[in-house]
Write a structure and sequence with these properties.
The structure is a homodimer of 321-residue chains.
Chain A: H1 4-15, H2 25-36, H3 42-52, H4 59-83, E1 87-88, E2 91-92, H5 94-98, H6 100-118, H7 123-152, H8 158-183, H9 188-215, H10 218-221, H11 227-230, H12 236-244, H13 247-259, H14 264-274, H15 277-297, H16 303-317
Antiparallel strand pairs in A: 1-2
Chain lengths: 321, 321
């Protein structure tokens, strides 16, 4: 059983090739550029891990892993257009560097080429893989739509927000694992548990991400905290705070968001604490982690095969702060 | 053997259903809206015709036909964003009515759902169908990119322009027929001839479209002529004229395009005629039609089975003017 790091290296060896033709240059060069920005390639490596949980890694798992990574990059390129984001991982976004029309079309063709990779796999699993890939792709689009809808809404219910996060980020992690499992010949029950493991880890990671932005130690966290608060971003914390706050606190929160005073971040953090949102978030994260581990335990393979997944989960959601 | 009209009716019966879930409404309502605008559904019906050329129409052909129509609508939604087009078939475009971000995402999800339809077909043909579908989708994206590139270029070679038109419009017609043929169990040679038939008909149609805009009888053509000239659109005629014109005529053309005088359209038409571009376009169209018919003749099935395709071709490219 290989570690995330080893599999990551193996994946990059296969993935760092030329995926696109050279012409039309204005279509494919932006695609090369964006893949060149890099990223942690977590999702494709999870596909390999899901595969190795049940069998020796096969070529089809690499094809699907490549498809997943191209799909993920397609969503990033299009999301960046919608969010008008100038930077991604410290580099210019595709639409910023090459224009919106090109970014749109480059994303489109990247999605098509993702399906080219899917189409390389063995016929017997093709239907199942495409079914799960498509379901996930639809969900990711739906999550992005809910996210845009929520940005315009005055108030969002916690349950709605949880569903949005699940669709926008967790299902792809879950499906990456499951696609690997399908290709490894896993049965339906094992597939289901692995999917739920991935989904819960994804949720825990997202709760943690929101938590660290408000309560993390900037030195250990590696970036300035309070960014979400400064940008009035709807997060787990803000949404829960609005549910927990009394009328006075609600007014304070709305006022801070509208007037943007210099001490908005510490003031908001103080309200969060008064409402007990910090403690709540730690518990919520813990709940997701426990649920993830229960599902991992329930997978009917030898424990030793599960170790790399356990380490990955710990790495993702037990970051120091 | 059924006519285009009969098959069109049969297709609409299957296609006029709800393709999308109801939530998130802001993602799927625009998709319903756009499909509701209608269209001639030529491509999916061509898929059915390609299927019936070799066998009784099967369910898989309907699935692929639906996928093709959804793909085509996805390209229209995204092209309209890139072209900043306010109207499509006399109705508001998706981005105009619902905003650019929604149009982008709605197009994306429509493409994914097109693959859902592909994934419904029998496993034995799935690889081949997805292979051709993807190749065509990539080519359509490439054609759109070349088109955008050319709009910014001072001069475009006729060969480059022909290639762009082929990619942007003809290959999808050709592939629609071929996908039907694949599902009908056609051999490689027959598939190839049918593809070439569709491609050549597509080219002839496009030449005719450009021709009619300049030389058509507005009453018979059904719309005002000269629109392409007024908009300085690069067409077969303009590109050929720039190749044929002497230095004085070239200067005149450039001058007309820059100054946009009130009599620009008749003046440009007069230059086109002096350069013999009208005669050339008629011959070019005829060349494509002849090539299409030769390929149709070479398909090894009884002539009577080919009749609906012949009628369709005649309908598409022998319009009175």
């Amino acid at each position: 059983m290989k570690s995330f790091e080893d599999l990551s290296e193996q994946f990059l060896e296969k993935f760092n090739i030329k995926h696109f033709p050279s012409q039309p240059e204005n279509l494919y060069r932006p695609a090369d550029y964006f893949l060149g920005i890099g990223g942690k390639r977590i999702r494709p490596v999870m596909c390999l891990m899901g595969n190795e949980l049940f069998d020796t890694i096969n070529d089809d798992a690499y094809h699907v892993a490549s498809a997943i990574e191209l799909f993920h990059n397609f969503t990033l390129i299009h999301d960046d257009i919608m969010d008008k984001a100038p930077l991604r991982r410290g580099r210019q976004t595709v639409h910023e560097k090459f224009g919106e029309s090109t970014a749109l079309l480059t994303g489109d063709v990247m999605l098509v080429i993702a399906y080219d990779y899917l189409n390389k796999i063995n016929t017997s699993y093709l239907h199942k893989i495409i079914h799960l890939f498509n379901k996930t792709a639809r969900e990711v689009c739906e999550g992005q739509q809910w996210d845009m809808d929520f940005e315009k809404k005055e108030s969002v219910l916690l349950n709605e927000y949880l569903k949005m996060i699940e669709l926008k980020t967790s299902v792809l992690l879950a499906a990456s694992l499951q696609m690997g499992a399908i290709l490894g010949g896993a049965g339906d029950g094992n597939q289901k548990h692995l999917y739920e493991f991935g989904k819960n880890i994804g949720m825990a990671f997202q709760v943690q991400d929101d938590y660290l932005d408000a309560f993390g130690d900037p030195e250990k966290f590696g970036k300035q905290t309070g960014g979400d608060i400064a940008a009035n971003k709807k997060t787990f914390l803000l949404i829960k705070a609005m549910e927990e706050a009394n009328d006075t606190q609600k007014k304070q929160i709305r006022n801070l968001m509208q007037t943007n005073p210099a001490d908005k971040v510490p003031q908001m953090i103080s309200i969060f604490k008064t409402c007990g949102v910090d403690e709540w978030a730690r518990e919520l994260k813990e709940k997701y982690i426990q649920s993830a581990y229960t599902h991992l335990d329930d997978i009917a393979v030898l424990s030793v095969r599960k170790e790399p997944l356990k380490y990955l989960a710990e790495f993702l959601v037990q970051r120091e702060y």
